[in-house]
Design goal:
Elements lengths: L5 H22 L16 H11 L5 H24 L3 H22 L3 H5 L2 H12 L8 H8 L1
Length: 147
Amino acid sequence: MEDSFKIPQLLLRCALGITFLTPVLDRLGILGPAGTGNIEWGNWENFINYTATLMPYLDRSVTNVMGGIATASELIIAVGLIIGFKTKYVAIGSCLLTFTFILFMATSVGIQKPINFGVFTASAASLLLSYVPKYKWSIDEINRKAA
């Protein structure tokens, strides 16, 4: 049977990877200052302020740590998806992380925010990606052929 997932899985990996990478670049100020173009935060402080609205019951220092964990997780997931390294597990992690975002966003700022930000779509797409049998054009494929 022909592998009909070659191009769709590559496009999905890249789309999800970029979806995770751009907010990281935004909150680090790499994409520009807040208020310009489609910049959501523009710096770390604005991102932590938003994170505090999602977790109002946490102390500011804990919120900063949680923002750091989320940022590191998003960066690892972005790179893993784009290069196709441990793709199945990274996709599962992506699904779990986005589902966590859905829960925090829905309970603190309402259900419309995760809908507007496409978090439901990213979560479902990540779960779907984890079920693809082979990841063509990936580190996983190189490792599979070498084994």
